[in-house]
Amino acid sequence: MTESRGLGVAARLYDVYLFDMDGTIYLGDELLPGAGRLVRALRERGRAVRFLSNNPTKDPEQYAEKLAALGLPTPVDEIVNTVVTMTRWLLDNAPDAVVYPISEPPLVRALERAGIRMSGDPAEIDVVVASYDRSFTYQKLQTAFDAIWFHKRARLVATNPDRFCPFPGGRGEPDCAAIVAAIEACTGVRCEANVGKPNPAMLHAALAGLEVDLGDCVIVGDRLSTDIRMGLDAGAATALVLTGATKAEDLESLPASDLANLVLDRIDRLLPPQVWKELDWKEEPGPGSPTRNC
Ligand SMILES: [Mg+2]
After folding, report:
1. Are residues 144 and 201 in the same domain?
2. Assigned domain for 88 exists
3. pTM of the prediction?
4. Contact 242/264 with Cβ under 8 angstroms?
C-alpha cells in the first residue's frame, strides 16, 4: 500500500471501518461534514463499523448516547475507549493491585464494577493510573508522588498518550500526556504502559467477535501518532482526516513511514467515486462548521 501527503479518495470498500470519534466523526457536539451519511451508507452495505476513542472522560454507554443524539444510534459493544482497555489491563496485569485513578468518574465507575480495589492512601497504592482528568489538582499529584517516590511501591500507567483534545475553532484542552508528564517530572519514574491508541489493545478490543483479515480493515482518524500509527503497526489500511488534530502542513516533513495511505479533507471520501455516483452524492457542505465544544 502506498502512503500519501496529498488529498485523495478511497479506491475500494473495506469489510471493517474503525473510526476514531473526536475530530473524525464529530468535533464538539456537531457531526463533521459527511460523517452521518458515510456511516449510514456503510451499514446499508453490510460493512462493520466500530468506534474507538482514547478519551476516558466518557464510558461506552455515554458515547452511545452521544452518537444516538447525533443521529447515529450504535450498540454499546461497537464502541471501545480507554475506560474499557484500562479496566482490562488492570484485570490482566495487576489483578490484586490497589489502584489510584487520577481520572474522571467514568473510569472510577468501571473499576468499581470490575471489582478493582481503589485507595487514595499512598502507603497502600500499587498502581497510579494517569488519565485525562479535568479535576486534576496539586493534591492528586502529591498522592501519586508519595505512592511512587516516597513509598517506592506504585507503578505508573496511563490511559492514553494524547497531548490535547481538539476543540472547534482550532482550540484544544490538555489531555492525559500532561498529567503523565507532571508525575514523571517529579518522581523520575517513567510511565510503563499506555493502553490507548496506538497500543494494539484498542484494536483487539474493537475487533473482538469479528472474523476479519487486518488487510480488509481501514483505520480512520485525525491523529498520526495514535490512530494512524496503530493502523500502520497492525498492517491495516489507514486514512487520515484533516478535520481534527492534524493539518495539511503537518505532513510536509514527515517521513514516509509515518504517513497514512489516504489523506481526506472530508470523511465521506472513504466511499469510492463509483459509490458516490450510485448514491447520487453531491459535494454538499454537510452540517456546516462546528462551533460548540466537546
Ligand atoms: Mg481524534
Report:
1. no
2. yes
3. 0.88
4. yes
